[in-house]
Amino acid sequence: MGILKRNVPPKPGRPTVSIIARGNSLSGDIQITGKTHVDGHLFGHIKALEDMSIGKHGLLQGRIKGKKIFVSGSLEGEVICDHLFIEPGGKVHAQVCCADMKIDQGGLFVGERTLPEPLQGTDPMQPQHSSIDDQDLFDSLPERITLTGKS
Question: pTM of the predicted model, to two decimals?
Answer without folding.
Answer: 0.70
